Structure formats: C-alpha cells, structure tokens
Amino acid sequence: MEAKLEGRIQALEGKLERQIQAVETKLEGRIQAVETKLERQIQAVETRLEGRIQEVETKLEGRIQAVETKLEGRIQEVEIKLERQIQAVETKLEGQIQEVKTSLEGQIRAVETRLEERIQAVETKLEGRIENLRQEVKAEINTAFNKTMLLLTAIGVVLALLSIFR
Questions:
Q1: Closest Cα partner for 92 from 66, 70, 74, 65?
Q2: Which UniProt keywords apply (predicted)?
Q3: What pLDDT is attached to residue 86?
Q4: Other residues' Cβ atoms within 10 Å of the Cβ of residue 19
Q5: Which residues, including other chains, have CB under 8 Å from residue 151's CB and lie 6 or more apart?
Q6: Mean pLDDT for each consecutive 10-residue tract of the chain (166 residues)?
Q7: Which burial class, exposed, middle or buried, applies to 30 when counting CB atoms under 10 A from its CB (0-12, 13-18, 19+)?
Q8: Are 89 and 49 in contact (CB under 8 A)?
C-alpha cells in the first residue's frame, strides 16, 4: 500500500514538475513575443516619425525658397518700373523681408514645437503600453507562481494525511 502511494506521489511530483516546466516555457515564450512585438512597434513609430519630420523640413525649405524667389522677383520689377523710387521701395521691401523671415521663423519654431510634442506624446504612450505589458506579464507570472504554490500545498496536505493514516 505504501509503495503504491509512494508511486502515486512520485507520479504526481513528476507530473507537477512537467506542468511547472511547461508553464515556465510558455511564459518565457510569451514574454519574448511581447518584447519582440514592442521592439518592432517602437521601430516602426520611429521610422514613421523620422519620415514625417523629413517631409515637413523639405516642405518648409521649399516654401521658404519660393517666398524668397517671389520677393526677389518683386524687387527687380520695382527697380525696373520705379527707378525714381528705388530707395523708398528698397526700404519698404527690406522691412517686409524681415517680417516674412520673422514670421517664417516663428512658424518653423511652432511646427518644431508641435512635432516635438507629438513625439513626446507618442513616447509617453509607448512607455505606458510597455508598462502595462510588463504589469500583465508580472500578473501572469504571479498567477502561475500562486498556482504552483497551491499545488505544492496540496501535495503537502496529501503527504501529511498519508503520514497520519499510516
């Protein structure tokens, strides 16, 4: 009878060891999959944001170039048509050029600020997601540990009962 019970206990211990190993393997696989997925998502977001920043910079450079070209053309027209008023027109256009440059610089700073805020928001959001995933993984590990402890406690109770009934 004892040999039979010991055999059953050993079989249960072996089964529990296999179950614990399977749970550990499964959790390690899930953790690795989550980490890999997060790394890919972060890389994709970084790539997308870099492309968008480059697009905005290129677009703004083109707009600045277009404005400068337009203003230079206007200056030449004024010089040809109004030679007698060159000094007044030049003074006026220099003021306008400075205003446009100041305005464009302000717009560029505003766009840069908005882009930095967007990037910060995305980083914050990703950090939050990563933290949530970490908490989920911790919870799963704790659950598995608690189940293991319950199983080990049950084995202890069975062993205690067996030793009492001997």
A1: 74
A2: Coiled coil, Lipoprotein, Membrane, Transmembrane, Transmembrane helix
A3: 63
A4: 14
A5: 16, 19
A6: 85 90 93 93 90 90 91 80 71 89 94 94 94 93 93 92 85
A7: middle
A8: no
DSSP track, the chain: -HHHHHHHHHHHHHHHHHHHHHHHHHHHHHHHHHHHHHHHHHHHHHHHHHHHHHHHHHHHHHHHHHHHHHHHHHHHHHHHH-GGGHHHHHHHHHHHHHHHHHHHHHHHHHHHHHHHHHHHHHHHHHHHHHHHHHHHHHHHHHHHHHHHHHHHHHHHHHHHHHHHH-
- Tokens 């205003």 locate to 99
Instruction: Judge contact between 158 and 9, C-beta under 8 A.
Output: yes
